[in-house]
Amino acid sequence: FWRQKNVDCSNEQTENKSTHEANSTLKWVGCTETCLEGGKESCQCGNENIDRDELRFEVKNKSSDEQASPHEAGSSFLHSVANMIGMLIGLGQLSTPYALENGGWISSFLLIGLGIATAYTSHLLGKCLETNRKTRNYTDIGYHAFGTHGRAITAAFIYLEIFMSLVSYTISLHDNLNMVFLGTHVRFSWVHHLSTSQVLTVLAVLVALPSLWLRDLSSISFLSIGGIVMSMMIFVTVVCTAVFGGVAANRDIPALRLRNIPHISGLYVFGYGGHIVFPDIHRAMKDPSKFTKVSIVSFTFVTLLYTSLAFMGAKLFGPEVNSQITLSMPRGLVFTKIALWATVLTPMTKYALEFAPFAIQLEHRFLYSMKSQTKMIIRGTIGSVLLLLILVLALTVPYFQYVLGLTGSLVTVAIILIFPSIFYIKIFWDKISRPVLALNVFLIAIGFLLGVSGTISSLKLLVGSFERIHSTS
Q: Ranges for the Amino acid transporter transmembrane domain (predicted)?
């Protein structure tokens, strides 16, 4: 809690003051240890010279860790692989055929390269976690590297990514509901200005809303399994469409469309977003030393799935491929109906899971001294307000590919490429070799290049779409 300095103090008053501060700190440590041994959730031990809120938060986390550790560290290798794959696959796979068609088949090397690079940065996160056993999540790594400023910046990017991802999920929900209930007309007198697909989207979000009020966040873990099943069903239905759907996979894919690379790079990047929960997977493993192998297996599987789906969709539908592959599948096929419903259900399984990191931090930072029922009410209310705001934005900005690309370029690229490399360099500065340093600097430079160019491109496309709509209306 304090740093001992080798300074000869000639001033007796200064020496007494330092001794007093050291004694008071030791008393605080003793008090907190007593609290932890008693199994209390928080400690009220005070020290005038230390940030009480920060220390109390850390003590509470330590107490929770000690109680949960026997149950947390129980994930096997295969279980950890399944968890990592479940966090990676999702909306990203829907847009890979569109991205490949618009970027050209040479852009697949970018998709594969990003898979290799992000597997490496997940390995870096594991190394950073091993240096300090108190480091539990992504923001803690930022704090370990750069102090409170690192934690604040990291948290801001994480929450922005969660918010923008949920907007993209809701847009996808709206687009696919429109196809599922094509020709159906639903009207309410009090929302006569909304279309049928918008009304159905509102109803679907309201159905998913109660999941944000669940008292125990561990009770929503089954939703992650549902998300994996839905994603695999989408892939299988596209394969079945190619084999049994009567669609000839004979479209030509252009070699390279260089001007589209900045935009489609954001779509590729978004598909590998999942690093914010990797520390949780690391902490839950029986043998954390195998975390790197888990990353290699998981990213290999996901990269192969994305690449195969990208080529398959581009060869099947060519220039007519939609930003979401499910919207390009032939109507009337049973495979199409299954894919559409799987895409509709995927966002509904993601709302509570995506909101969980924010809810956990909210409780630990601000609600730790409140009763469990009060926590649930505050957490649920805030989550409901945010989800309704997300719903309004999604219905106002119905441009899936541009919002998804902007999310990948603006925030995801920083979380999966830039931050892990910067954190690793800062934490291991005294031990890092020159080749490894050069590799990490290269990844940081690539991340900045993709982030800046992709953000500018996606914003231009988004603004252009708005202008075209207003000019025709």
A: 74-457
